[in-house]
Amino acid sequence: MIERYQTAEMKQLWDLEAKFKKWLDVEIYASEAFSELGEVPKEAVSKIRENAKIDVSRILEIEEETRHDVVAFTRSLSENMGSEKKYVHYGLTSSDVVDTALAALIKDALSIIQDELDQLIEVLKDKANEYKYTPIIGRTHGVHAEPTSLGLKLALFYDEMTRNKKRLEQAKDSISVGKISGAVGTFANVPPFVEEFVCEKMGLKPALTSTQILQRDRHAEVMSTLAILGGTMDKIATEIRNLQKSEVREVEEPFYKGQKGSSAMPHKRNPVNCEKISGLSRVLRSNAVTAFENQPLWHERDISHSSVERITIPDSTTLTHYLLKILKRIITDLHVYPENMKENINKTYGLVFSQRVLLRLIDKGLSREEAYDLVQKHAMKSWENGKNFKDLLKTDDKILELLPGDELDQCFDTDWYMKNIDYIFKRLGI
After folding, report:
1. Are 98 and 26 in contact (CB under 8 A)?
2. Any signal peptide, and if so, which residues (predicted)?
3. Is the model's pTM score more than 0.85?
4. CA 52 to each of CA 57, 79, 83, 160, 180: distance values in angstroms, whole numbers, following the listed order
5. Same domain for 164 and 55
6. Same-domain status, 158 and 207
7. What span, in angstroms and rounded, lies between the C-alpha atoms of 202 and 199?
8. Of 57, 83, 141, 307, which is the active-site residue?
9. What is the rounded radius of gyration, in angstroms, for the C-alpha atoms of the chain?
10. Does a structural domain hold residue 426?
11. Domain holding 406: CATH number?
């Protein structure tokens, strides 16, 4: 991942030294397991633990010759050892080390993401409660529909993020497995005890079965989960972007002191961070596609998945963490303009209350078809001529006969649309 989109936590997690340290953990735990079985001297394990040193530059130098990163890694370790070096990588195949370590790294990455997601969920909950009864026009097909509340929009985002949290927990459980089962998964040269021992030490479960590698449906689940989470973030960002349009301006992403919106136009306050979320979420979705392509490997394994995952898994976990941080800041400092919301509700001449009028006429005895045609006739006049909808209705004797006095006026009260907000919030547990 380019430095621009890295977070400190993910940068540290995915750097080469951290990766090789995880590899070394697997190697040392495997040696310990073999020593428990009496196949490796305990003093050799002590010396391996004492003398094993990670030298990233030396590993890369050796890899230039070997063209094999695990061989380069083990040879670099051996350069600092005596006779105990013969027990390094004893009975193992490369993927025993690489896949088990990768699973542990992904698990750690998902834990970092979970912490940030939990914080965002709390922010969404607080903001939903803050704007619980703030009326805003609802839009379907981009066209004014009926009033809703800004709090309910935020509550919906909260609800979707809690589903993302559950998906993330499931994906983390699926990926939290290791395998130390040898070249084709038969345990021919490494006893099952070694796998159990190493996995327990690494905080993983043994895969119930494997080939030379862990099966990539697990990784696809992780990557698709991150893509779905990115989709929710994109959804929220897109909503803010639309509501920030100059002719709408109901909410606005935060614009901080000293920030510039345009090199040419000093007045500009662009939703650049929301646009960044929308753009980078596309990377998460595209990376998920490559994870699906990694599932059907040849026989007990090929290497076509490996090069892809060196890019996509660190990138997707890093981007997800980065975007969660940005979105949390946007929601925390969101600029909200309730007066503009009221003004926009009234921009369509009161047409957004048409269903309320329709239903009241039905209650008064008209058929649905008759009531619909009657209301639509005046609604179309309002649209086409820019006339106040309620005033047009009041020119119709039949409507006034059925809805006399203030009965018609009551159909144009936004409070009507807020009456079940408490029920929805209660159902959500917020």
Report:
1. no
2. none
3. yes
4. 15, 9, 13, 47, 20
5. no
6. yes
7. 5
8. 141
9. 30
10. no
11. 1.10.40.30
